[in-house]
Amino acid sequence: MIIICEPIARGTTHEKFNSGFIYGLRLAYPHEKIRFYADITHIEAIKKIMDHDKIMIEDIEYVPVKFKGLYGIRGILTYSSLFNKILSDAIEAKVNKIFFLSFNPTILYVIKKLKRKIKFNKMKFTFVLHGSFETIANGYDKPTQLSLPIRKIKNQNDVKYKLQIIRQTKLTELPMVISPFIDRFMPWHWTYKRIFTDRRMLQWNHSPDYRYIALAPHIKRNAEKYIDIKKLNMYTVVLPTVFKEPSAQPDNEYVKFAIFGYGNPLVLHNILVQLSQKDIKRQYEIRIIGMDNRGTAGFPNVTCPSPGKRLDRSEMEKYAEDIDIFLILYDKTRYRLSCTGSILESLSYTKPILHFDNDCINTFNMPDGPIGICCDSLEEFVCKMEDIIENYEAYRLEFQNFRKNILKLRKECAIENSVATIKESFTW
């Protein structure tokens, strides 16, 4: 039996990565039963995305668990009880390995504490690294941020947006949403924050029984500056996902850009302000395929089909069909030690990208097989958008070549090519 645990994600968070890992584990261990522990909302999201992507996995058992997003003393106590039960279930099923799709320092501490018990001392764990791994970097070693003339969005939509988010939160989930903010004002929070860091918890009581998976090659390269990745038994599984069938290249009258997913409202606002100051003659559209349209009020070329409301996967796909190019708005300070889902989506929907210099995106947009255009500054980014708008027909061939390179890259990143690494990271 393969036991998989997702203790953090709820709803559609990480649905593509996680469904990819589950499918990869099925390919690696085709005859093993799979048991998947997760929040019920995430289980439903996983079922939907696997159905959508036509992933057929037989003999999988879904076990709903009410994981709570807690930290500090409350988090330790709560997680200790939950994971004691899960580890006990594993022992009863004669399984001594668990594959964690995510974790935080509190979870890692609890797992390592439980492993010290005689009952669990032969357990082994593989953990997938996500955003919190960024905190291992030294504070003084941060790259220079993108220079933005406007540093704050003054927009009435900001309050409206936050209220819409709160309205979407179920009453049963409100305690989980509120508790982290309450913890911030408690006396133990500052002590906890200094002791329970990713770096400390990764190094504390480390042994060969712990292995870690990064989602892109740049993560290991950058992590080497701060931590002993060889000692941590770190592997790389590139963007574990099942790609949808490539769509045809759009044939529009004018160029259509899109921000797919979370985006970056402040950077977008700066782009829109500078674009509005250009003497642009031709029509264009910037479509926000997501819920966050803050900072876009008053700009006529911006559309947001679902402001403040989450879109399901089929809706997002519908709005992405006629898009020429995705805008990825993260600068060099972001995703140095993690991987953005934005690049996954551009590969999945076969969309070229326009982006800022960024270690994560650069890993996939390589000079020998470019999938888009990289810019070093806000001014260069805006000028490139202006040029694409005014000379849309001239860029069609370039977009077509980007799409060909994306299709090649998709084959390289296919989950089937990562099966050996997944197996190696989980068999010992």
Helix content: 40-55%
Distance between the termini: 15 Å
| Total E-strand runs | 13
Q: Tell me the number of helical segments per DSSP (H or I, 4 or more residues long).
A: 16
- Which structural class should the secondary elements be placed in? alpha/beta
Describe the sheet with the most strands. Answer: 7 strands, parallel
Radius of gyration: 22 Å
- CATH architecture classification of the largest domain: 3-Layer(aba) Sandwich
The CATH superfamily of the largest domain bears the name Glycogen Phosphorylase B
Tell me the β content: 5-15%
Mean pLDDT: 91
Q: Give the overall shape.
A: globular
Trace the largest sheet across and list its strands.
3-2-1-4-5-6-7
Q: CATH topology of the largest domain, which one?
A: Rossmann fold
How many domains? The number is 2
Question: Under the CATH scheme, which class of the largest domain?
Answer: Alpha Beta
Low-pLDDT regions: none
Order of helices and strands: EHEHEHEHEHHHHEHEEHEEHEHEHEHHH
